[in-house]
Design brief:
five-stranded antiparallel beta sheet; 7 helices; 5 strands
Length: 192
């Protein structure tokens, strides 16, 4: 302890640093126990993870009715969950680009991805057409039966724009090479 005043008053004053440290640690332990601090709740953690995804994530029943959707999916469709809940995911695709959800027997017993990286065009609530890549996986609560679908939708407009720009550059280069080759062939014939 600190014996600063001890010789004068015959008092023994304990070392405060140790006691403060003990009380502080007891407070942390109490907070962890009382308020579940530092404990990861799977349902809260999974919700936070889903909200941080940049891809749209739709959870649907086997018929494609939307049960829930993350923020990226709502932004993609330009709508709120209340406007989308219970609607069929296929109403956001043209008639010739419907997700094959009618194959219930195949979906019901699917063990892996049902559909992977299919390029499609999604129609938003304000009728804007968005180029997307779709992947569909069966959601199993208890195997072997499927309870619903996980549909991941990625906006690929930038990828398509870059692919077109690359193709345009390639085509332009081919034209330049053809023109230069023609010029060189003419020069070669004059030299011969």
């Amino acid at each position: 302890g600190t014996n600063f005043l001890s010789p004068l008053l015959s008092l023994n004053i304990p070392d405060l640093a140790q006691n403060i440290g003990i009380f502080w640690m007891a407070g942390v332990v109490y907070a962890v126990i009382r308020y579940d601090a530092l404990i990861i709740n799977p349902s809260i953690a999974s919700k936070e993870i889903l909200e941080t995804l940049s891809d749209g994530l739709f959870l649907t029943d086997l018929n494609g009715r939307i049960l829930t959707i993350n923020d990226a999916g709502r932004r993609l469709l330009n709508a709120e969950l209340e406007d989308l809940h219970g609607k069929n995911i296929n109403q956001f695709f043209s008639a010739d680009q419907q997700l094959p959800l009618g194959d219930a027997a195949r979906i019901k017993h699917a063990t892996g991805p049902y559909l992977t990286d299919r390029d499609m065009q999604m129609i938003t609530t304000d009728k804007t057409v968005v180029d997307v890549s779709i992947s569909v996986t069966a959601l199993h609560k208890r195997k072997p039966l499927t309870n619903g679908l996980i549909i991941v939708v990625r906006d690929i407009a930038d990828r398509i724009r870059l692919k077109k720009a690359l193709q345009d550059s390639h085509d332009d280069l081919e034209k330049r090479v053809a023109a230069r080759t023609s010029d060189l062939l003419e020069i070669n014939e004059k030299l011969v």
